[in-house]
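**Backbone description:**
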Amino acid sequence: MAEPEYVLGTHDEEVARLGVQHQVWRDRMLQLCREAGFGQGSKLVDLGCGPGFATLDLAELAGGTGSVVAVDQSLRFLAALRAAASARSLRNIETRQVNLDAWELPVSDVDGVWCRWVAAFVADPEALVEKVRHALKPGGVFAVQEYVHYATWRLSPRSPAFEEFVRLVIDAWRRSGGEPDIGLDLPRLLERHGFAVERVRPIVEMLTPAMAAWQWPRAFVETGLQRLASLGTMSQAAADATWASFLEAERDPQTRMVTPLTVQILARRIS
C-alpha cells in the first residue's frame, strides 16, 4: 500500500507536534488504560498509532509477557515507531500497515484496543467500531479519546481570525471524509454493536499561555496554518497574519484558550 496523504500530513513537523500532544495527554491516557485493566500480559492494539508515542507506553504496560500490535496506514509513522522501540529495547511491539477504511484489523482475541483521535478521520466510524468488536475477545475493552465539539476551541479575548482558522480546519477535515465531532455519536454506535459503555468522561480546559498544556494546541496552530496554506485552503498571507495575531494574543498573560471538547470512553465487548 502506498504512503497515504493524511489531511494533517506525515512530515517531520507533524511528528514533532504529535509528540507534544502525547506528552500533554499522556497522564490521562495512562489513567484510562489502567481503568480499562491494561497491564502485564495484556494483548493490546494501538489503533491508528501514528509515530507510536502511545504505543511505547502501552508496550511498557503490557510488559514482556504481553504485546502490542500498532496499526497505521503510514509507513513513515510506522518506521518512526520501530526506531523508537528499538532505541528503548522494547521487543513486544508488532507494526502493521492497515487502511482502516478498507481492511479488517489483522488481529483477534485481544484484551484491549486503544484509540485516540482516529475515529474522527475514517470515512465510516460505525464500520470501525464493528472491526474493533471483532478484534476484541468477549469482555475485552475499547478505550477511546475523541472530540465531541471541536468548535469549542476559542480564544479570549475573542479572535475572529482564530475562529476562522478553526472553521477552516473543520471544513478541511470533513472534506477529507472525517468527522471531527464523532465523539458525540460513539456511545450510541458502540451500544449498537455489542458494547457496554462503562464510562464517559468529557474533558475541556481553559488554558493560559503560562501553562504547559498550552503547547499542545499552540503546536497545532503553527503546523495547521501552514498545512492549510499548502493545501490551498487559505492563502499564505492569511496564514501568516493569523499566526502573527495568535502570537500577539499569546504574549498577553491574561489570554485564555478553551480547548476542543473531548470525551474519554471505556466500552466493553459483551456480544
Observations:
- The helical segments are 12-35, 53-62, 75-87, 125-135, 160-175, 186-192, 215-231, 236-250.
- DSSP finds eight helices and ten strands in the chain.
- The two ends are 33 Å apart (CA to CA).
- Residues 31 and 37 are 10 Å apart (CA to CA).
